[in-house]
Design goal:
heterodimer, A: alpha+beta, five-stranded mixed β-sheet, 6 helices, 12 strands, about 35% helix, about 20% strand, B: about 230 residues, mainly beta, seven-stranded mixed β-sheet, 1 helix
């Protein structure tokens, strides 16, 4: 950056200090230190942790974004502090500053740097979202809708997440289709969450697993993950869903594979009577397509043929 | 307009706005059903038995929403039925519940909640007969549920038959009903535990999920656990 040049009233030029170089020299070590601290010290503790493939992938993304953001933020703060200190108003100095008519090099540098950062983040984010080219999947842990664009290797454990005001229940179709309020998962095995809702819009957010998928009625929203560690998982609803939305959470567990199989087999046997009452396993349970609900409602004089709980002429029906 | 007239008009307008604001605050934010106290005189964390009595009705003729289904709670001292869903119990105590089911049947949206969980012995008693699950899709069997998610309690409420002539004035004191009893231990952790009905029983609202299902004092409320 060129030294700043000012013109005195007599027309002679006065060469001042190179402010750009000064700012750069202050900014550089601060940025390097901040990036090293962010990546190596705070990075491993960044949310959502390292409990699953998707969580690790998300943590890596957040680390990269932080490493890119820190120098930008450092530059803003350094420039602000430098301005306040160096260019502050001094006693007896009542003159206007030199007129500015633009600076092509600064403008070009600014546009180039910001464009490179934004374009890199767009490309990086797209790559990470799809986990393209990776032999073992990582992915974003987000819901991919009913037709996922990619799937993990092998046969994943199917876990259906059924949201309803104000509780999540979980169905395990590979174990007789039993349903429970307990979320128990095996470590090291790919898991396919099939997320749906029975009433309003909810959102299944298994924080430590880095899984977050909307639960919409009549929709199967698929999300994948593989747990890398055993431990507890906090599950929250992350979509405002009514009076007790704030209380719609529970805790799951990631356990060794043998412990999971033992639990699943035991629970399947324990819940046989309740499982018999459930409808056959399905990716969604819309009243309009589950014949048993329709039949029960018709028998009880409620709704019936239209598949809804109350007749169309009942107030507030759309 | 003269100056005094302007001042009076301004003052009246200000008072009108203030009155509306006060009404909104008092009616919507501070207005809450009363709490029935079952904890008074009982020492917490001793396993003492507390008997809570409730009823669920097909309507609520004592409120501004007479067509909304509703729970009522019996005051332990006066035995009067109180239109509320808030009650207080001592921590670490055995809660014996009796719920009179006066309302008719509606199928559960999720049949899983036809199973009894969280009670002592994993059962409820319908008119004295032990029951572990009720199938709401096989016939007119379930009217509502009493569920406290925080302690994994879920009990389906049995109902009178489909052709029964249901009680028409609440709180119900006569008419066909089922008596459901069950027991559970109140948690040792003090706090407020919300409870709800899991049958979409808000007739008149989209798929039954609105109205009484979303309103404290009707089909959902709080169990406050105190020391």
């Amino acid at each position: 950056m060129a030294a700043s040049v000012a013109e005195d009233p007599q027309g002679s030029e006065q060469v001042g200090p190179n402010h750009g170089l000064r700012i750069f020299l202050i900014w550089l070590p601060i940025s390097v230190a901040a990036d090293l601290l962010l990546y190596f010290v705070y990075g491993p503790h960044m949310p959502p942790g390292q409990m699953s493939d998707s969580a690790v992938s998300q943590q890596f993304d957040i680390k990269i974004m932080s490493v890119l953001a820190a120098p930008v933020m450092a530059f803003v703060l350094v420039f602000m502090a430098y301005s306040v200190i160096v260019w502050r108003h001094r006693d007896g100095d009542d003159e206007d500053g030199p007129p500015i008519f633009g600076h092509a090099r600064i403008q070009a540098t600014w546009i180039t740097v910001t464009a490179v950062i934004v374009l890199f983040l767009a490309g990086f984010g797209t790559y990470e979202l799809g986990a393209f080219g990776q032999s073992s999947f990582a992915g974003a842990g987000a819901g991919e809708g009913p037709s996922p664009i990619w799937k993990p290797d092998g046969t994943p454990l199917q876990v259906q997440v059924i949201a309803q005001q104000w509780r999540f229940t979980y169905r395990y179709p590979q174990f007789g289709g039993f349903e429970t309020t307990d979320l128990i998962l095996p470590v090291g095995e790919p898991i396919q969450f099939n997320v749906t809702s029975l009433d309003v819009i909810h959102d299944f957010w298994a924080y430590q697993l880095g899984v977050k998928a909307d639960a919409n009625p009549g929709v199967n929203n698929v999300a994948y993950t593989t747990a890398k560690q055993t431990g507890n998982v906090t599950v929250r609803c992350d979509e405002l869903c009514g009076l007790w939305h704030g209380a719609m959470f529970n805790f799951g567990k990631v356990v060794p594979v043998a412990a999971f199989r033992s639990w699943a087999t035991k629970t399947e046997a324990q819940l046989t009577a309740v499982t018999k009452m459930l409808p056959p396993y399905s990716t969604t349970y819309d009243p309009t397509v589950v014949p048993q609900i329709n039949k029960a409602m018709a028998k009880q004089g409620i709704g019936g043929a239209n598949g809804y709980y109350y007749p169309p002429n009942d107030p507030v029906q759309p | 307009m003269s100056l005094p007239a302007r001042v009076v008009t301004l003052a009246l307008a200000f008072l009108a706005v203030a009155a509306v604001a006060a009404f909104v605050v008092i009616h919507y934010f501070l207005g809450s059903p009363s709490t029935v106290d079952y904890a008074s005189g009982v020492t917490a964390d001793t396993g003492a038995t507390v008997h809570v009595v409730m009823q669920e009705d097909p309507q609520n003729t004592v409120s501004t929403h007479p067509d909304w289904v509703s729970y009522f709670i019996q005051d332990p001292k006066t035995h009067a039925w109180v239109h509320t869903t808030l009650f207080k119990v001592p921590a670490g105590s055995k809660i014996d519940m009796t719920i009179y089911g006066y309302d008719g049947c509606t199928p559960l949206r999720n049949q899983y909640f036809g199973g009894v969980t969280g009670t002592i012995g994993g059962v409820e008693y319908v008119n004295g007969k032990p029951v572990k699950e009720i199938n709401s899709w096989s016939g007119c069997n379930v009217g509502h549920t009493f569920s406290i998610p925080g302690i994994n309690l879920n009990v389906p409420m049995a109902t009178p038959s489909l052709t029964a002539s249901l009680c028409g004035t609440s709180p119900c004191t006569s008419g066909p009903h089922e008596t459901v009893t069950f027991s559970f231990m109140s948690p040792r952790t003090k706090g407020v535990y919300f409870w709800q009905c899991r049958v979409p029983c808000g007739g008149g609202f989209i798929d039954g999920f609105g109205g009484p299902m979303q309103t404290i004092g009707f089909m959902t409320g709080n169990m406050e656990v105190v020391s």
